[in-house]
Amino acid sequence: MKKTALIMAGGRGERFWPKSRKSLPKQFLSLTEDGKTMIQLTIERIRPLVRMEDIFISTNRVYRELVLEQLPEILPENILCEPVGRNTAPCIGLAAVHMAKRYDDALMIVLPSDHLIKYNQMFLNVLKEGCGIAQKAANLVTIGITPDYPETGYGYIKYRPEESDGNAYAVERFVEKPDVETAKEYLETEEYLWNSGMFVWKVSTIMDNIRTALPDLYEGLVKIGETLGTEKQEMVLEKVFPEFESVSIDYGIMEKAQNIFILPGVFGWDDVGSWLAVDRIRKSNESGNVVSGNIITIHSKNNIIQGGKKLIAAVGLEGLIIVDTEDATLICEKGSAPDIKMVLENLKICNREEYL
Amino acid sequence: MKKTALIMAGGRGERFWPKSRKSLPKQFLSLTEDGKTMIQLTIERIRPLVRMEDIFISTNRVYRELVLEQLPEILPENILCEPVGRNTAPCIGLAAVHMAKRYDDALMIVLPSDHLIKYNQMFLNVLKEGCGIAQKAANLVTIGITPDYPETGYGYIKYRPEESDGNAYAVERFVEKPDVETAKEYLETEEYLWNSGMFVWKVSTIMDNIRTALPDLYEGLVKIGETLGTEKQEMVLEKVFPEFESVSIDYGIMEKAQNIFILPGVFGWDDVGSWLAVDRIRKSNESGNVVSGNIITIHSKNNIIQGGKKLIAAVGLEGLIIVDTEDATLICEKGSAPDIKMVLENLKICNREEYL
C-alpha cells in the first residue's frame, strides 16, 4: 500500500525565544551542529520510507514561504496551508482528504516537524512495523517512548503488556499531562509510555474514526474534499476550516477510539522542548559549555551560549543559557528556563510585537 | 596667586570593557545617571575654583578630538597632547612648563579625570585649604582619603598625626599598593590614608622637586619649555618627550620629597575602579538591579545591566554584570570582575584589535 507522510509544521513554539519568533518557529530553526533545520532533518529522516512526492507538510499559511525556502524538493501542492490553527485533529483530517483525493486510500505516517531522533534506522524499522499493523486492519498505531523520568509535560499512554502483536501492544488509554506524583506512579507500574505524537494509520481508518468521534469535523472535511482540484478549493477551505473546533487528535480521537496499538520507540527521541535540550543534542567542550558563535569564556562552566557575529564574553558564569540574536539577547539561569514565557507575556502586555 | 588645574586624561582603563575601549577610555564614558562623562564632571566640579582658561587637560594625542568634542569650552591650547604615555611625572612636568610659560608661577591643582566625588563643596574647601598650604611655602600637598577597608589596589600615605597645620598633616612616607595583611595593619594604626592621586603645589615647587629627584626629566622639560610658542614646539616635544623615563609622580617625586602635607578628604570620593562601582554610583530598583537600556528582568536581583537599544531579557539571574555594546556583550559574575582583563588578554593574543 502507498505510504504517505504528514509532517505537522504549524507550531508557534515560544520556548526557543529569542531565536524562535512568531515569524520563525522552532521547526524552522537549526539547533543541531549540522546546520540543518528541524523540519529539514525530519524530511531527511523519513525519506528512505516515503517518496518525496508523497510527503505532505501541514502548516499555517504564514509559513508557506519558509517551507518552500527550506524544503525546495517538496511538491508545492503538498504544502497544506491552514487559514488558522485548529490543533491536530483538523490538521490531520485536512491532510487525510488530500491523500484520499490523490490515492483513494494510503498509509499515513504522522510526524511532528520539531523533534530529534538519534537512531534513524531504528526509527524507520519501528515505522515499518507500524505500517504493517495499520495496513492489515482498521488499526490506529501510535509510537510511544519509554519514559526515563516522571516528566509532567507529556501525555502518557497505558498499554496492555499481555496483549501484543510483534513489538506492538494494545492501548488501554491515553492520559493527559499528569502531575509529578501521578507521573511517578506511571513510571513504577511500567505500563505507561510517553505519547510522542507520532502515528501510523490508513487514511480510511482515520477518516472513519473522525466520522464517529468528531462528526462536525468529518462533515466539513467532506465539503473540503469535494472541492479539491476545483476553483472553489481555496474559498471553501477559507470558509469551512476556521469553523472547526480546535481539538487535538489525542483528545478528539485517541482517547475514545478502539483498536489502538502502541509501538515502543527506543531510537533516541528528543522533543527538544526548551533551550535545556541543547545540552543533550550538542557537544559540550571540556568545561561543559555548549557554545556557538563568537564567544570567549573565562572561568565559566556548564553554560549554553548561542551567539552569532557579535562577541560574547562570559566571565565566571555557571549554568546559564545565553542566546544572542540581532535585536534581543536572553540571559537565563538554566533552572529558570520555564520562566522565559514570562518574558513573552511581558512583551505582549507592552505591545512590543516586534520581539514576539 | 593664580590658580590653575591640570586634569590628567591620558588613561586607557580596561576595567570598563566592553564600554571602554582603547579609542574610548573610562574618562570619556558616562557612568552616572546625569549622562555626563567622567571628564565633564571633573571640569564642572573644579570650575568654582579655577577659571576655564586656566584649566589644562593632559592626554594622549589620540584623544584630542574626544576632549574637544566633550569639552568645547576648554581653550584648545590648554589641551596638552603627549606623543606617548610616560606616566604621571612627565605628564605633570609638561603641564608645569606650560603653566610657567604663561604665568611665570601659579598654583597647580592636579586631578585625575575619572574619579567621582559626591560632596563637591567639601571637595572645593579641601582644595582651597590645599592652595593656602602650597602657596605659603615650597610645600607639596596631597589629598588623602580615609580608608574604609583594607583595599590592596591603592597606594597608602603615612602621616604624622601630631604634626598638623589646620586640617593638613605632615607626610611621613608614600607606600606602594600593599598586600591585604599589610593593608589591614595600616587600617589598624589609623596613620595611613589612601593616595587619591590629587595634588596641589606651586609650579615652581614641583619644578624644583623634579630638578632634584628626576634631573633628566627636568633637563628635557627645560628644552621643551624654551620652544613653547615657537615653531619648534611640536618638533622638540616629539623628540624629547618619548625619551623620558616612564615614572609616576608618586614613585619619582613623592616617595623622596620633603615638605609634603596631606589633607584628608571626606567628600564621598569614588575612583570608579570597575563595573562593581556602578552599584555604588547609580540607583538600584526594588530588586537591587541597576539597569539602563531596553531591559526586561524576571525573577532577577542584584544585577548590573547596562544595555542600549537592543532588548536584554534577564531571567532568574543574581549578581551578574551585563554590559551590551554595538559589537560586544559582557556577562560577568560580580565576584569575577577582576577577570575581565583576561578577556582583553585573550583578545590581544588573538589579534582581535577591533574589540580592544
- The class by helix and strand makeup of chain A works out as alpha/beta
Number of helices of chain A: 11
Oligomer: homodimer
The biggest beta sheet of chain A reads:
5 strands, mixed, barrel
Strand content of chain A: 25-35%
What does this structure look like?
Two copies of one chain form a homodimer. The N and C termini of chain A lie far apart (44 Å). Chain A has helices spanning 38-46, 64-70, 88-103, 120-136, 180-189, 203-213, 215-227, 233-240, 249-254, 277-281, 340-349; strands at residues 3-8, 55-60, 79-82, 107-112, 116-117, 140-145, 156-165, 168-175, 192-202, 260-265, 269-270, 290-292, 295-298, 304-306, 311-315, 320-324, 328-333. The model of chain A has no long low-confidence stretch (mean pLDDT 96). Chain A is of the alpha/beta class. Chain A is 31% helix and 26% strand. The longest helix of chain A is centred in the middle third of the chain and has 17 residues, at 120-136. A five-stranded mixed β-barrel of chain A has the order 6-9-7-8-10. Chain A is globular and about 60 Å long. The interface between A and B is medium-sized, with 34 and 34 residues. β15 (311-315) of chain A pairs parallel with β17 (328-333) of chain B, so a sheet runs across the interface.
